[in-house]
Design a protein that fits this description.
The complex is a heterodimer.
Chain A lengths: L1 H18 L6 E3 L4 E3 L7 H10 L3 H20 L1 H6 L5 H35 L4 E5 L8 E5 L1 H18 L1 H13 L3 H17 L34 H27 L5
Helix pairs in contact in A: 1-2, 1-5, 2-5, 3-5, 3-7, 3-8, 5-6, 7-8, 7-9
Chain B lengths: L5 H5 L12 E10 L3 E11 L4 E5 L6 H8 L7 E6 L2 E2 L10 E4 L11 H10 L10 H8 L14 H13 L5 E5 L7 H16 L3 E6 L2 H7 L2 E6 L2 E7 H5 L5 H11 L2 H8 L10
Parallel strand pairs in B: 3-8, 3-9, 6-7, 7-8
Antiparallel strand pairs in B: 1-2, 1-4, 4-5, 9-10
Helix pairs in contact in B: 4-5, 5-6
Chain lengths: 263, 275
C-alpha cells in the first residue's frame, strides 16, 4: 500500500507540473538548485525526491522498519517463530532483509516512476539546472546530457536511500523493544523531526550538532548537479549513516538475543 | 531433528533403550523485574506418553515455565531439557515440539491456509513432513480456511492454533491455557484433540488454572503456587480420598505444612505413562 502511494505521488506530481505554466522554477536543496520542470523528464524525479526526502520517505521507511518485528509480536506470530529451531539472529536478519528491500523499493520507486512519467510528459531531453548559489539575479546554468542526468539521478536516489538508513535502523531497534508497531514507527519519524529541530537554522546555539544529526544533510545530493559535483559533504553524511546504523542495529541485535518473549 | 513415525510412537519396541524424558526441569528459577519471582526452584519431570496438567492459580508461574521450556524466556538458574537436550532459544530439539502458548498467533490479513503454510515454512522442515490434512481436520474450518484470519471467531482461531501446533506431528505438545475463553463446545473439541494427540504417541504438557479440567483430561498433574511446586504425581494418587483434585489441592495449601507439601510433591509417579 505504501509503495503504491509512493508510485502514485510521482505520477500526480507530473500532472501538477504539467499544469504549471512555463518559466516556473522549483527550488531544490541548499544550493539552491533551480529546476525548470517542463524542459526535461529528469526534472520530475528531482522534484519528487526533493519533496519527499524529508518526511514522506522517512515515514515509509519508518513504517517498514518499525512494523517488521513489532507487528510480529503484536500478532503473536513472533513467539511461534521463536519457539522453533530458528536462531534469533537468523530471525532478525530475515526481518531486516525484508524491511530493507521494501524501504529501498520505496525510494527507488519514487525516482523510477518520476522518471517514467516525466519522460512521457516532457521527453528525454538534456536536463538544465540553474545553480542559484552563484547569483540571485542571474543563475549559472549547468546542462546535463540525458546519460549524465540519468547517472546523477541514480546517484542521488542511492544517496537518499542511504540517507534513510539511520532512521531505518532506529525504527528497527524500537521494533525489537516494543510490541506496538505504532510506537516504533512514531520513533523513526520522531528522530527525523528531532533531526530538523537540531538544525542551526532554527536553533543557532546547536549549530555545532547540525552535521551530526541523522537526517539533516540528506539534501546534499543536489551538489551532484553542480559542475563539478561537490561530494565532500555527501561522503561525511554517508559515513555518519554507517555509524548510526552500526550503533542502532548492534543494539537491536544485542537486545533481541537476550529478550524474554513474554507476549 | 528426527520425528518418530506414528506407528513407532503407538507401538514402542519391546525392549526400548533408555530414553530421555520428554521434559526434565531441575531447580528452575526466573525473576521477572525486581520483585516478582515467577518461578522458584521448580523440579518437574514428564515421562513419555503422559498427559501432564500444569495447574495452579493465576500468577503461579505456569506460563513462564512453559515459555522457558520453549526457549522464549531465559531462566536465571536451573536446568531445562527436552528429550535430553538443553533448551535455549532456537534449540534443535524444539523441532519436535508443537505449541499453543498465550492464544493463537497468526497474520490477520492472510487466510488460515496461508497462515498454516507460513507457520510451517518457519520450521525449516520439508513440506512433506507436514501433516496438513490432519491439521485441517483439527481446524475443522471448511471453506473458511481460505478466509482472512481476522474474520475468524475466537473458537475458530483456537482451533487453527491447535492445528498449527499439531501439524508437525510433535513428540511433545505444549499448550498454555488452551481452553481459556472458549465456549463448552469448543472446549470439548480441544479435549478431543489433546486425547487424539496422546493416542498418536505425543506427550502432552498443558497448563490450566482449572483443576477440574486437569482432573478430567490428564493422567498426571503438577500444581504450582507462587512459582513453587505444591504437588505432583498421578492424578488418581493426588486426589486420593478427596472428592476432587481441587479439594486435594486446597487441603494441601490449607495445611500449610511445607513438609507435607514436600511429601506430596515427592509422590511423583514413574508409572507406565499411559494417560
Amino acid at each position: 500500500m505504501t509503495l503504491v502511494a509512493m508510485g502514485l505521488f510521482a505520477a500526480v506530481l507530473t500532472v501538477a507540473l504539467e499544469a504549471t505554466g512555463p518559466g516556473h522554477t522549483e527550488r531544490v536543496g541548499d544550493i539552491p538548485l533551480l529546476v525548470v520542470p517542463r524542459t526535461s523528464g529528469f526534472s520530475v524525479p528531482v522534484i519528487a525526491l526533493q519533496s519527499t526526502m524529508k518526511f514522506f520517505l522517512p515515514l515509509a521507511v519508518a513504517v517498514f522498519a518499525g512494523e517488521s518485528v513489532a507487528a510480529d509480536a503484536a500478532w503473536g506470530t513472533m513467539r511461534y517463530a521463536l519457539a522453533r529451531p530458528i536462531s534469533r539472529t537468523r530471525y532478525l536478519i530475515s526481518k531486516l532483509v525484508v524491511a530493507s528491500v521494501l524501504s529501498l523499493l520505496a525510494v527507488v520507486l519514487m525516482s523510477l516512476v518520476g522518471l517514467a512519467v516525466g519522460t512521457a510528459a516532457f521527453g528525454w531531453h538534456a536536463f538544465a539546472a540553474a545553480d542559484g548559489s552563484t547569483s540571485t539575479v542571474v543563475h549559472a546554468v549547468a546542462t546535463f546530457a540525458p546519460a549524465a542526468s540519468l547517472a546523477r539521478i541514480t546517484l542521488a536516489t542511492l544517496y537518499v536511500a542511504a540517507g534513510m538508513t539511520s532512521i531505518f535502523a532506529f525504527a528497527f531497534l524500537l521494533s525489537t523493544l516494543t510490541t506496538r508497531p505504532f510506537v516504533a514507527v512514531a520513533g523513526g519519524v520522531g528522530l527525523t523531526l528531532l533531526s530538523r529541530v537540531f538544525n542551526g537554522d532554527y536553533l543557532p546555539g546547536v549549530a555545532v550538532l547540525n552535521r551530526y544529526m541523522p537526517n539533516n544533510d540528506i539534501d546534499l545530493w543536489d551538489h551532484l548537479f553542480q559542475t563539478p559535483a561537490q561530494t565532500a559533504g555527501m561522503v561525511h553524511f554517508l559515513l555518519l549513516q554507517v555509524v548510526y546504523v552500526v550503533v542502532f542495529l548492534g543494539l537491536a541485535w544485542w537486545w533481541f538475543l537476550r529478550k524474554d518473549v513474554l507476549v | 531433528m528426527t520425528n518418530p513415525k506414528p506407528d513407532q510412537a503407538q507401538n514402542p519396541p519391546q525392549n526400548p533403550a533408555p530414553s530421555q524424558p520428554p521434559v526434565l526441569i531441575e531447580g528452575l528459577a526466573k525473576r521477572l523485574g525486581r520483585d516478582v519471582l515467577a518461578v522458584d526452584g521448580l523440579d518437574l519431570r514428564v515421562e513419555k506418553g503422559q498427559v501432564m496438567g500444569l495447574a495452579g492459580p493465576n500468577g503461579a508461574g505456569k506460563s513462564v515455565t512453559l515459555r522457558i521450556l520453549l526457549g522464549l524466556v531465559r531462566p536465571d538458574s536451573g536446568r531445562v531439557e527436552v528429550f535430553g537436550e538443553r533448551v535455549h532459544a532456537g534449540a534443535k530439539v524444539l523441532g519436535r515440539v508443537g505449541a499453543l502458548v498465550d492464544g493463537p498467533g497468526f497474520v490477520p490479513h492472510l487466510s488460515g491456509m496461508v497462515n498454516l503454510r507460513l507457520a510451517w515454512r518457519m520450521t525449516g522442515r520439508p513440506e512433506t513432513d507436514a501433516d496438513l490434512e490432519r491439521a485441517l481436520e483439527i481446524a475443522g474450518l471448511g471453506r473458511a480456511i481460505d478466509r482472512p484470519y481476522k474474520s475468524y471467531s475466537h473458537g475458530m482461531r483456537y482451533r487453527l492454533g491447535l492445528a498449527q501446533a499439531l501439524m508437525g506431528k510433535p513428540d511433545l505438545l505444549v499448550l498454555d491455557e488452551p481452553t481459556t475463553g472458549l465456549d463448552p463446545a469448543h472446549v470439548v473439541e480441544i479435549r478431543k484433540a489433546i486425547e487424539a494427540a496422546s493416542q498418536h504417541g505425543a506427550t502432552v504438557l498443558f497448563s490450566s488454572h482449572q483443576l477440574a479440567e486437569v482432573q478430567r483430561i490428564c493422567s498426571h498433574a503438577a500444581i504450582m503456587r507462587d512459582g513453587k511446586l505444591v504437588m505432583s504425581g498421578q492424578v488418581t494418587d493426588l486426589v486420593g480420598e478427596h472428592a476432587s483434585l481441587e479439594a486435594a489441592y486446597l487441603a494441601a495449601v490449607e495445611d500449610g505444612n511445607t513438609h507435607q507439601e514436600g511429601e506430596i510433591a515427592g509422590t511423583h509417579s514413574q508409572g507406565d505413562g499411559s494417560p
